[in-house]
Structures are given as C-alpha cells and as structure tokens.
Write a structure and sequence with these properties.
single chain, alpha/beta, ten-stranded mixed β-sheet, 13 helices, about 20% strand
Amino acid sequence: MSNPIVDQANSGRSFAPGRSINKIMDSGVTDSAPHFVIPTGFEPLDSALDGGLRTSDLVLVGGLPGIGKTVATLQWARHMAAAGFPVVYACYEHDESSLFSRLLLSEVGDLAQASGDSTSSETRRAAIAAGNDPVAFNDAARGSLVLRAARARMQAYGDDLMLCSASPTDLDVAALDRLLTDRGGNTAVLFVDHLQKVSTAGGDEVTVDEIAVALKSIAMRHGIAVVGVVGASAGALGMRRLRLQHLRDAEGIGYESDLVIMLNDKVTAISKRHTAFDTVRADDFRGQVVMSIEKNRNGPSGIDLEFRKDFAHYRFNPIGSVLEEQLIDGVMITE
C-alpha cells in the first residue's frame, strides 16, 4: 500500500547510475552530497559519537514529558549554529518568542556558570519576556551587562539559527521539504520537535514511524542531519527507565533511525541500591539526566552518560561524564 507521507518526501527523487569501487576510488563520489560530522557541544557525548551527528542521518531523542528533550536539542542547535552550521529548528510545542527567550536564558546561564555568579530574578524576568517585548528587553539590557553579553552571543549566530513554529497542518512534511529547498542547500541540521505533531499535506493523521520514514528520506536527499524529538507511548508513562522500545511506534522508528538517544532522570533510572541508604546522594541524582546511546549505526551503542540540569536557565551543563552507576532495565512503578 502506498504511504502518502513517504510519497511526498520522495517526490522527484531519482537514483543515479551506479559506479564501480575503482571508479569511486579514482574520482570520489561526486554525485552525492558531502558528509559532515556536526558536534552537539555536549561532552563526552560528542566523543562517544566520534565527533557528533552526521549528515544524511536521522537522529531520535526520546524520553518522558519534562525530561529535557527540547532543552537538550535547542542547546545542540545553538551550539551548531555558533560553530557555523546553518540550523532550522521546527517546533510544534512552543512558539518562536518562547524559543527565543529560552535561548537567551540559556546564554545567561552559560555566562553565570563561567563567572560563578548567580542570576538575579530581574535578569530572569527580562530574559523570559524578551521574545514578546523586544523594546522592554532592550531597555533592560542597557542596564545589565549580563543581558547585553547574552544578546551579543545570540547575535553572533543569529543568522544561522532559524526558528519555526506552526501548527501541524501549516508545517507538514511537504512544507518542511519546501523550506529546505527554498533555503537553497543552506541547511546542515533540521530539528523537528516533535514527531507526533507532524502531519501530511491536508492534515491527514499518520503514525510516528511513517513520519520517521519521510524524515529519513529528507535527510538523505538534502544531505543534512535530521534530529527528531519523540515521546513515550501511553503504556510507558509509569516506567522508571525508558528504553527505545517504549517510544511511540518503536519498532518502525527504531528501524529507520541511525542514532537513538534516550533521556532518563538519573534518580529513577539507576538501581535503588545506589541511593537506598543515602538521601543526600539521591537528592544529587535528582539534578542529573542520563543520556543513553541506545542505537548507533556509525559506532558503539549501550553508552550511558550523565549531565547536570540547569532548568532554571533552560539548559544542561554541557560538560558531563560517563555514568558509573548501574541502570535498571525498565521497571513499572506500582507503589
């Protein structure tokens, strides 16, 4: 049976005649897009991925609601744009002003971490309101060195980070494809947050794995990395640790994806023997998220890393570490 969303993504696609290995070695593969490795800015995640994300790949980021999927991916997008990689962040969950404010507050958090200073409530309020009231923000920035520095940091990569917010029918798969085409190849990474909200032209309802098929096709045809945020299936909302099999349409998206990174709260995802008699340690673990590489076509999987939350600034500390504790496999909470 024909899949309309795949038909949209593949429209006009053709395959070039093949060439022998010797011809490729002599002249290179000139009829396909060059491949790039694009760092996320998170360490040791980039090291575990041999440098970062790869163009033509579909990357999925999964986890429970509120775990920090948008926080992490928006932070990656910011780092990539700052490194000179043009990025499109298409979000079906938050409007552009909200995303702008989150980026600004993340920059404030970076500056606060670097200086060791705390962020005042006035600075936070000004950053949160910045997307809706630029005039008031400019007034506030004139009296705040931190806000001026954060704005300058954003302006440095502002041309390379495009924020898109729309309803599923306004920004369906075909519209995403046209957006990339209209940009004339000036895109390295497309973020889609999140896959459950994307639709076909006309708003037809489709499954998440059908969306994944279409986005993988877009990644290959445009020679870009596509990062998709995926939520958990309804039956997995009580799990202490989410795995790939707990995502929506897990079997299909697991097959289509090149890389799957799962986010879990450390305090619930590790074995309770690590915290059973140490409440101080348990409190510390509540401030950390485990990022697990569950699938990786380009390298090793089964790698568990930890990063500290700074959700007051809509960010993670991008310098994490390899997880030392033992994770559970996934246990339903019944108490």
